[in-house]
Batch of 2 targets.
Target 1
Amino acid sequence: MRWPAFLRLSPRWAPYVFISPFLLLFAVFGVFPLLFSLYLAFQSWEPTSGLDAMEYVGLANFAFALEDEWFWKSLKNTAWLALASGVPQHLVAIPLAVFIHTSFKRLRDGVIGAYFLPYITSTVAIAIMFSSLFSTDFGLVNAGLQALFGIDNIDWLGKPENIKPAIAFIVFWRYIGFNMVLYLAALQTIPKDLYEAATMDGAGRLQQFFHITLPSLKPMIFFGVTLSVIGGLQLFEEPFILTGGKGGADQSAMTSAVYLYRMAFDFNDFGGASAMSWLLFVVVALMTWLTNRAFRPRGQS
Amino acid sequence: MTSAAPWPRHRRALLAAGLACALPVCAAARRKLTVAAFPLLDEIVKAALPRWQRLHPDVEVQVVSRQYADHHTAMTTALSTSVYLPDVMALESSYVGRFSQGGGLQDLAQPPYQIDRFRSRFVPYAYDQAINRRGAVVAVPTDIGPGTLLYRVDLLAKAGLAEADLTPSWEAYVDAGIKLKTATGAYLISNAQAVKDIVIRSGLKPGEGLYFDQDSRVLVNSPRFVRAFELARKVRRHKLDARVSAWSNEWAEGFKRGTLATDLSGAWMVGQMANWVAPGTKGLWRAAQLPAQTFVSYGGSFYAIPRRATPENKALAWELIQLLTLDRDLQFAAFKSQDAFPALLETLDDPFFEQPLPFLGGQPARMLWREAARKITATQVHKQANFADEVIGTELDNVLDHGKDIGRALADAERLLARRAHR
């Protein structure tokens, strides 16, 4: 059957038509919100009055954000959580990947799958599971600590000094598998003869790890750390759900992303929230650039 | 993104609808009103629909129901974009304060609504709560939550205490708690924060703000807050609070097991206790006015008409709201079926209020609550009230958990609030 002429797609237009679903969706859900939030960052807006209630205020929202104690507090929380959850991820994932790479043959895929599972599980399910694990009186974590070390029940999610470690642990647990898979992939690209030559020269396993494996993994470490920096600075779901959307006692788990959500939806300040989101973008861009510099091969800087 | 963009499109749609109505098809089509509500208000509206259908057989009412938080988020979005606005919007009292700051809700003081005609028929504070700074009346009260003190009469007796030991003043209430703890081991209250929440609300003059005054000056560095913080600290120091947050598992368990001896809450709490929190404690509870003759409200519901709702439905929407709020029988039905304490004054003199409540050991407690309802005064809600709530709560935590000096805590709170006051 031949299509009538007016329905036929000319080869000239075909690529654009085929690519258009993505472009349309991206325009609606990507570009438009981005530009709208940039526009909002310069407005003062009482949202329930409707769109025409916006008022241009210039840089006032940015000035407010930069002087806002809670914005800085949230940035500090974010940095703390990004470091405490991000650094161990890589410090553990690399040796773990090497261990799995060298020691597992038949069970390999199963082990990788087990570590990877948290990454593909829904954040909401994870947060709900951990909030019951961390429950003060009825939680498994406290029951375990009590049985093993005789430690009294700890108020994990209610006390400011405990929330951050609890959340950092969850984020660590969640992304370790993902990082491990990255490193496993990189390990497979290291030529075997390097190790053979090293063995012949009398290098031990530790020496091989530090002088062959680690330098060869560097590009992948750069990639993994970059993802961790970006993800860590945008951390939202875990603290949001575990603290009931509030950020916890003394706002100690209120990351910047949680705070700017609350600025808009709890405190009705969409202009301030938009300005903060762009400031957060600047921070993310800056940190990514610094990561890039740190990993640049020596002699090029 | 010009500010006028949504309007012409809207107009065109109306025009199109108008054209369609010129055709004979339209005559047969039923008109439809949309009511957006949250549980249990959705049930109350649905229960009133048979009455409505008798008055307007040609107007169908559709009740769109969402969970409490989702509903209010959806309403915020609908108001901000003027899309999918319901004809009648149910609102919880804290959101009435919040939404009244903007211009999204219809001013019902204007003709043709002229709600002042009915002013004397509503519980005074409930009506006042819907008046915003500019004098516009943005919502109509339908149910209220007069505050009450609930206490375990058996635990009090064990400690040799009576109601008169709890209620003279907040200091007396806390002192009684100390005796209660020593004698029975039961906590006085779920959380010290609850004591602070109510003491900062007591002794407010009508129209006086909670955290900010009318000119957005911050009021938190004042004797009212110092006293509230000191009392809360005393509660914590004597370990009189169970340190659980309301509605948590531990909290409900405390009521079931009798480790929580009193509660400061709305009258509706009795229904919650009887139905699911602690039905086994039936007969052991009594109600009293809050200590120091404090009269405050805990929640309440309102109906509003969005300013940009479909114009030709507004008259009908207003009629439906009047039916829901001014009809004695419907207000009563909601009270009996859903514990929605009526905001309509003329219902309050009914003999129903004198009936004994089995959960409270046969006490006719509704008489207390109706007295409270008449004495509560409205508080002005400031735009930053949500933020202030949290700042004050956090500073009290600092005082309770880390021994922060009260003066410094309140000065810190004042500084944070002052920066936001005019945003």
Target 2
Amino acid sequence: MIQLSWASIRASKSYLIPGIILLLGLIVLAGLPSFGPKYSVIFLSTIFMYIVLTTGWVMFSGPTRQISLATAVFFGIGIYIAAILGKHMPLLVMVLIGGLASSVMALLVGSLTLRLKGVYFTIFTFGLLELIKNAINWYEVTFTGTRGRFVVVVDNNTIYLYMLAITVLTVLTAFLIRRSKYGLALQSIGEQEEAAAHIGINVTLMKVSIFAISAFFMGAAGAVMATRWTYIDPFMAFNMNYSFTPVLMAIFGGVGQLGGVVSGAIIFAYLEQILITKYPFYYMLVFGIVMVVSVLFLPNGLAGVVKNWRARTTGGRYVRT
Amino acid sequence: MFVLEGQGVTKYFGGLAAVSDVDFHVDQGEIVGLIGPNGAGKTTLFGLISAALVPNSGTIRFKGENITGLRPHQICKKGLARTFQSVKVFSDMPVINNVVLGVHFGTSERVKAAQAANEADRLLEFVGLSGRAMVPAKDLTLVNQKLLEVARALATKPEVLLLDEIMAGLNSTEITQAMELVSKIRAQGITIFMIEHVMKAIMSVCDRIMVLDHGKKIAEGTPQEIATSKMVVEVYLGE
Amino acid sequence: MLEVCDLNTHYGKVQALWDISLEVNEGEIVALVGSNGAGKTTLVNTISGLVKPSSGSVSFLDKRINGLPAHVIVELGISYVPQGGKVFPEMTVRENMEMGAYPIRAWKQKDATFEQVYRIFPRLKEREKQLARTLSGGEHQMLAIGRALMSKPMLCIFDEPSYGLAPLLVKEMFQTIQNLKEQGITIFLIEQNVRRSLEIADRAYVLENGRVCLQGDCVELLQSDHVRKAYMGL
């Protein structure tokens, strides 16, 4: 927990084996377009998208304990950047601008509203979604004369590789931040904001910056995914589903552990994709039931189950000392 | 020049003056006590000094510089630290990380991870918590949580330390140990301003005592003077 | 009135209380003394129903109460003043106290009780209409005690009532406890201020590491070497 440098991470034995496994896994994933089934590339891109959104959400809302429903806003901005700029510049540049635009929005919104406590902040972020959606709609109808836009077309393999890259970067960033003093400070802000401020932590700066960092990845993902849909309008781009689903995935997987969050996203996204195809009319119901069951019986998500199992095999907790 | 001073400090909550036109000063190296009935405004005054609250009027100077209007983290970096009446440790983290945070963020220096851990260990030993470094802070007893807050505050390398009722809830033996700790801290050159209700401690450890009642300063002097002041006895001590 | 028999309590896997047996008889003030972490608050939480014991029993007026939910225990006549005086922050002082008079028996007498409590703690009357969260730490303590008194208990459990109180108020508070005894309320007092509590109590138990290590008449305990050295710093 207090290891802060590359050297110490590399030196630590416990990261060596999982690290090698991950690396091998990444190599396999990277090679998938070449030898894998066609559908898997499309399927996995969607799962990567959910991993990015969920991990991005946890990056901010996890330590600070302020629940943001603005994920869809940042995702949507990325989508719109793709729609507006996609035809005029290389894909990489467009994706980067998509991420940056979302970051800027997060900086603005954050500096204005991060002082709001608890529920008020959450409601504001939800309201922001509606505001942006309707503002852009109004603008498009009034000035551009059209509501929807066509997005530049990009082949599925490229989409897949971009999403893979963004996912790796997002998870890696989340991992490194958690283990840094920055991550520790964020956690302290969530626990005792006043005390954190009194030991020299610039609370506002920290909150706004992590908000902006998480928004970057969401925006980049949005810019890439937009090219798959080829046609978008404000109501498609700013869809509250993308605000709520990451929260559900994170809770299901277990907010405390990064592994839990990522697993939660993977399992949930997989479940959703399977259910949509098999039970197009009932999948939401099944989804809902899974959610209720996991909230009732898995308070710390899947990660909590793993932790409990581990604890039971190694002994009790601390006594008051 | 006093290391910490305030003139005409006033703070209203709604129509109520929690702190009313208070002048105070603390000299470098002193231990000054702040006493008064419950609700007198003592913790509010600390909040105004540490910038958790903004005064309605008056100025507060730290090392000669006007600090009214600055934010808590800035004041901390300038060398003023405090503990809290209702203990605010970071409960879900190990004890040592609480202190490590203070080391990293409490000053403008950049500290390496290993160095920070060493410094934290040293501070935990200083307050008497060594051996508990990896315990989650929420599993500590109240006394130890208070000691942890002190260690965390000391990690920010303060020149002035505000202690808010650290002896509440301690038994006699623990109070004696806490008094020794306070003296040790002063011996390091740190100036101390402390709120306390435990008379035994205040009287023996403080150089000077200030008394607040209903937001106003009603007395100031040596422990001897305060203990014999009729007004203080009537309003606060009751003996 | 209150009888605890061979009580054992665990927090998860960790045992906090071992074979605790004690009793509080009607009209007494019984003190419970011990260091932080000895298990005093755990014991009190078990008695007031917030925590379930793993074995043993707690009986009130010859009726077993361990395992009963806390609100039922309050209806039976036990009132609990928690350490640190937990008040309802968004309610006014008066509303907090009204909440204390929740049991039907107490509700009918609440106006008279208000008068009594305000006489003991005039500052609560001063701050009657203020939101509880605007009160200072010590005032929270006063309010919590006042609220407990509003339920017109037969047995009142005080968990560190002098915590954070100014010396004058500490004196008044111990005086209040003695007055309560005179009014017929039985009192179970947990305190760090060992000298004062042993001075006003009839009997006391000393808790160390989750076990009762000493018990008896307060006069004797005040003379005990162990008590004097460990808790009074003498």
